[in-house]
Structure to design on (419 residues):
C-alpha cells in the first residue's frame, strides 16, 4: 500500500507492506538513531514523535503513520545536541544504545513540562530502560539542563 | 510473528463489523499486545477514522471512545477531578508514556486481560461498555462474557456521587501488577474491584453493610477479610496465591480508608 507522511519535515510517499513497523520504515529512510531494543514495547529505545507525541515505533504500523508527522532525533539535532551535552557531562550515556530514545522522551517531557520535579522526571522516563547507568547520571544531567534553561530564561 | 496482508481503515462501524465477522480478520487497537501474537491476519481493521478518539463529558456521564489512548484518559482533567486522581493512579504505572500514547481504551477493555489496571478501575466506577451489536452492558458483566466478533465502541462512566481510590503492587516499576485494587463509595454503598489475581478483575459489593458509616480501620479490615474470602487467587511467576490473598487484605484496607467516609 502507498503511504504519504512527513518525516523530519520532509513529505515522502512510499509503498509499504501492511505489517511493516514504523521502526523499520524510518531506519530504511536512514534514521539510524532509532534503535530496536526489546521489540516488546517496553524499553523505549525506538521512541519517535508521532504528531509531536512520543510513541514506540516498534509498535506502530508504518501504514498507520499515513497522513501524519513523524520526527526522529535526526530531525531534532540542535535540540538533541544541546540537551545531550548535559547527559555526556555526567558520563551518563555509557554504552549509548539507549541514549537516542531517552533523549527523545526527555525532549517530549520538556515540551510538556518546562520545570518537572524529580518525581515527574522519573515517572515520565519510566518507559526508557538503561542497563548500564542506574539512571542517576541521567537524572543529574536532566536536572542540570533544566537549571541551565531556567537561568538562560532569566538572562533573556 | 504476526503477518498482516492488508490494513483497512473502516469508514463506518458497519463496515468494521462486517469485516470482523471473518475469523481471519482482526480489529486493532494500539497494537501493543496484538503485535506480540502469532498468526496471519488477512485484513487488520483500523477504527482510527471513526472519530472514536474523544472523551465526551456531560452532566451525567463520561463517554470514552474506543480509540482514546490511555494517556488521554490519564491526562483528562474532568476524569481526574471526578475520580479524585484514582484514574491517573491506575494508569500512570503502565509501562511508559510512549506506551500509553499508543495503548487504547478499547484494546485494553475488549481484551479483558487479567493484569489490566484499566478493567479494574472501570469496574469500580460502574462503567458500561457500548458494543456495536450487543448494546450497552455493565463492564462487570462484559468481563465474564466469551470473546465474540462484536466491536467495542465506547466505555461509558456514569457520574454519581463518588469517592474513589486505587492501589496496586508491582515487583518492579512498569511491570505487570501482582495485584490491582480499586475502591468506590457511592450512595448505594462501597464496592471493591480486584484484578491481576492473576485472573481478570472481579467486583465485591458490600452487601452485608460491613462498611456502615463512619468507616473505621476495623470495619475496613473486616471487609478486606470478606473480600479475600470471596475472591479466588492463583499463583504465577509474579506471586503465589497465598501472597495475593494477603495483598487483597492489605490493599483493600488502604483503598477503603482512602475513600474517607469517616464523617
Amino acid at each position: 500500500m502507498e503511504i504519504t507522511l512527513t518525516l523530519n519535515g520532509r513529505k515522502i510517499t512510499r509503498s509499504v507492506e501492511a505489517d511493516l513497523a514504523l521502526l523499520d520504515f524510518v531506519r530504511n529512510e536512514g534514521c539510524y538513531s532509532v534503535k530496536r531494543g526489546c521489540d516488546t514495547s517496553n524499553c523505549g529505545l525506538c521512541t519517535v514523535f508521532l504528531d509531536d507525541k512520543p510513541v514506540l515505533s516498534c509498535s506502530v504500523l508504518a501504514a498507520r503513520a499515513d497522513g501524519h508527522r513523524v520526527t526522529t532525533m535526526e530531525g531534532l539535532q540542535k535540540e538533541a545536541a544541546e540537551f545531550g551535552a548535559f547527559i555526556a557531562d555526567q558520563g551518563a550515556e555509557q554504552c549509548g544504545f539507549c541514549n537516542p530514545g531517552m533523549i527523545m522522551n526527555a525532549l517530549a517531557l520538556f515540551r510538556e513540562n518546562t520545570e518537572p520535579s524529580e518525581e515527574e522526571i522519573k515517572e515520565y522516563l519510566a518507559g526508557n530502560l538503561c542497563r548500564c547507568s542506574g539512571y542517576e547520571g541521567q537524572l543529574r544531567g536532566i536536572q542540570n539542563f533544566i537549571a541551565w534553561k531556567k537561568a538562560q530564561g532569566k538572562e533573556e | 510473528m504476526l503477518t498482516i496482508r492488508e490494513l483497512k481503515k473502516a469508514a463506518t462501524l458497519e463496515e468494521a463489523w462486517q469485516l470482523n465477522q471473518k475469523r481471519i480478520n482482526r480489529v486493532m487497537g494500539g497494537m501493543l499486545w496484538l503485535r506480540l501474537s502469532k498468526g496471519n491476519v488477512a485484513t487488520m481493521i483500523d477504527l482510527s477514522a471513526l472519530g472514536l478518539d474523544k472523551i465526551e463529558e456531560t452532566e451525567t456521564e463520561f463517554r470514552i471512545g474506543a480509540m482514546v489512548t490511555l494517556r488521554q484518559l490519564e491526562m483528562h482533567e474532568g476524569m481526574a477531578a471526578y475520580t479524585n486522581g484514582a484514574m491517573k493512579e491506575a494508569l500512570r504505572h503502565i509501562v511508559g508514556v510512549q506506551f500509553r500514547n499508543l495503548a487504547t481504551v478499547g484494546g485494553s477493555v475488549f481484551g479483558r486481560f487479567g493484569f489490566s489496571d484499566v478493567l479494574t478501575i472501570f469496574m469500580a466506577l460502574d462503567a458500561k461498555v457500548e458494543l456495536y451489536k450487543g448494546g450497552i452492558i455493565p463492564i462487570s458483566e462484559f468481563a465474564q462474557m466469551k470473546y465474540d466478533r462484536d466491536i467495542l465502541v465506547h466505555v461509558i462512566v456514569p457520574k454519581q456521587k463518588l469517592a474513589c481510590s486505587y492501589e496496586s503492587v508491582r515487583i518492579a516499576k512498569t511491570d505487570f501488577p501482582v495485584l490491582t485494587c480499586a475502591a468506590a463509595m457511592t450512595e448505594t454503598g462501597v464496592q471493591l474491584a480486584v484484578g491481576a489475581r492473576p485472573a481478570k478483575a472481579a467486583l465485591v459489593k458490600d452487601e452485608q453493610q460491613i462498611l456502615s458509616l463512619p468507616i473505621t480501620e476495623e470495619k475496613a479490615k473486616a471487609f478486606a477479610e470478606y473480600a479475600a474470602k470471596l475472591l479466588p487467587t492463583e499463583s504465577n511467576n509474579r506471586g503465589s496465591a497465598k501472597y495475593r490473598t494477603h495483598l487483597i487484605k492489605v490493599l483493600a484496607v488502604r483503598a477503603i480508608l482512602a475513600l474517607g467516609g469517616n464523617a
